[in-house]
């Protein structure tokens, strides 16, 4: 996942107050689910599946 406040534009620095709003706005632009291609949807599904597996492993480890 992208880090808050990270920018691809050289020379652009964000303060802490910009990071949350800017990251949310950038994420909304990047992940408009209605416009994702089939390969992008597959990658998103794969990432989500990995997150669920990791969550299950943590739950089992904590038991």
From TrEMBL:
Cellular component, GO annotation: cell projection; cytoplasm
Protein name: Cortactin-binding protein 2, 5 prime
Organism: Canis lupus familiaris
Subcellular location, record wording: Cell projection; Cytoplasm
Chain ranges of the Cortactin-binding protein-2 N-terminal domain: 36-63
Residue segments, region Disordered: 1-27
Taxonomic lineage: Eukaryota, Metazoa, Chordata, Craniata, Vertebrata
Coiled-coil region(s): none
Assigned keywords, A-Z: Cell projection, Coiled coil, Cytoplasm, Phosphoprotein
Pfam families: CortBP2
């Amino acid at each position: 996942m992208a880090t808050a406040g990270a920018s691809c534009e050289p020379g652009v620095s964000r303060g802490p107050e910009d990071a949350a709003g800017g990251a949310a706005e950038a994420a909304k632009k990047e992940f408009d689910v209605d416009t994702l291609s089939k390969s992008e949807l597959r990658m998103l599904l794969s990432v989500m599946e990995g997150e669920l597996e990791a969550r299950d492993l943590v739950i089992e480890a904590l038991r």
